[in-house]
Amino acid sequence: MSSQEFSEKSLPSEQDTAHGTAVAENPFADPGLPPHKPRIQDLDERAAKRSERTVALLFTTSMLATVAFIASFVIFPVDKIVYVWPLGHVSATNLSLGLTLGIALFCIGAGAVHWARTLMSDEEVADDRHPIEAAPDVKAKVMADFAAGAEESALGRRKLIRNTMFGALAMVPLSGIVLLRELGPLPEKKLFHTSWAKGKQLINMNTMEPLRPEDVTVGSLTFAMPEGLSEEDHDFNTKIAKDALMIVRLQPEDIKDKRELEWSHQGIVAFSKICTHVGCPISLYEQQTHHVLCPCHQSTFDLSDGARVIFGPAGHALPQLRIGVNDKGNLEALGDFEEPVGPAFWERG
């Protein structure tokens, strides 16, 4: 059979076209909706009660998981590591927070799905398409359908589900609120104080030995840290970022600032090494001018005049540490800095 003959036989005949066969008029017949089969919950109120208790249990579990999330956040330190098979060594905080939050969200979803599949109406309703613009009768129908859906959900009658669902939904956002705490540590008074205190000796950061006045010569620059601080400490970098000192010896007659002279010892002055612009360590000293220069943005401070800013973007002078000599002949601090070290911050005022 040729392709032309096959094509001609496949075309509808004039008689079929004239009478309009069912195939030509509606090639995709509407199969209609399958007959509705009632669920066991529709027939047995005891089964419905069991489903209700299951949904309530899931919502209650979600609430307990949220409480466990908050408790885990408070109990476990950030650096605590635990061994969990087969994951190996993991962060206790990350594991507990992820597990409890996952359970809380899963139980809400599972409870909602089980509620819809076992207790809400499962009858399928065909709704014809309609124009985008809603007519008044359509709006009335929508409101009627909403009221019918609310009635069929049995939210008013099944108070146990309603109350536990509202409780779960109300408590889950607490997880997000608690996580806001982790946006950054609360500064409290940490930014106002350093490790320096009355009686703490100045330790040379090169020799790790206590500094004596005779160790500091005129025109030299020495770096020091407080006694008791060790590079082996896990928080050494955090502390040294505030504790680092510049030790310079000037001729007493070259010191212009009265308070600087009173807080010095035989011309030895101690200033914070941390630049007040963005916190870079200062290490460039001009012996003849008594100026120190920050290598990051060229802020320049005059160590003979209270370490005031004479050039650059720094906002205020370097804080000075009051020093003296103990009974061993070593340099020691006579207290902490009287103002915060490093860059300005919003709590400073």
Automatic annotation (TrEMBL):
GO terms for molecular function: 2 iron, 2 sulfur cluster binding; metal ion binding; monooxygenase activity; oxidoreductase activity, acting on paired donors, with incorporation or reduction of molecular oxygen. GO terms for cellular component: plasma membrane. Keywords: 2Fe-2S, Cell membrane, Disulfide bond, Electron transport, Iron, Iron-sulfur, Membrane, Metal-binding, Oxidoreductase, Respiratory chain, Transmembrane, Transmembrane helix, Transport. It is found in: Cell membrane. Belongs to the Rieske iron-sulfur protein family. Iron-sulfur subunit of the cytochrome bc1 complex, an essential component of the respiratory electron transport chain required for ATP synthesis. The bc1 complex catalyzes the oxidation of menaquinol and the reduction of cytochrome c in the respiratory chain. The bc1 complex operates through a Q-cycle mechanism that couples electron transfer to generation of the proton gradient that drives ATP synthesis. This is Cytochrome bc1 complex Rieske iron-sulfur subunit. It comes from Streptomyces fradiae ATCC 10745 = DSM 40063. The lineage of its organism: Bacteria, Bacillati, Actinomycetota, Actinomycetes, Kitasatosporales.
